[in-house]
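Lines hold sequence, tokenised fold; shown next:
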Amino acid sequence: MTEQTSDFFHTFTLRGTYTGKKTAGAESDWRNLNTVLDTILEQLATKPWNGYKTMTAYFTNYRVNTNNQIECEIVFQGIANNIVESKEPNESIQEATPLPFRTNFIGHFDANNSLDIYQLNVQLPNKLAIAVINQHQIQMNWILYHEKNLKNPVAYAKFQGQRLFETYTAQPGKYYLYVYSYDNRPGGYQGLVTIE
């Protein structure tokens, strides 16, 4: 993957080789390749990171390999905005939204949605810094659980105005960040989890 940054954009390009089915002739192969790309882009658009919505993709260097299969280069390009958007449903650990470190995350609460759960994967012992901004002054909080004890939180937010923050020295494993509202008013939040 290559990234490019300018005064106005931060973009990425990801290249790889695609090997498909047996060839049915160039024209039919291109129709099939377009269907494959459409399906991939539709599936990616359902993922939490909203950068997939701006992504484009194309095939180049079409050829038939020695096994009589379609083979070509596949290229994905898009804006690298590093924002994960809460996707419903995510009210259980099975539906938790994966959250990479150093990636902004955003969500919104209303009368029908008062909980968002994010999954963090810690590979090595690290000190995590968790910060969430309450954008609309609603009653909200966050707590952090380790996968081995989902009844007792390992970290709670401290409040400083609209900022909910805390640090926690995490051991390897999966952690679940519960961001929740407790007043049923609509409002949004933005957060970031970093490794110190």
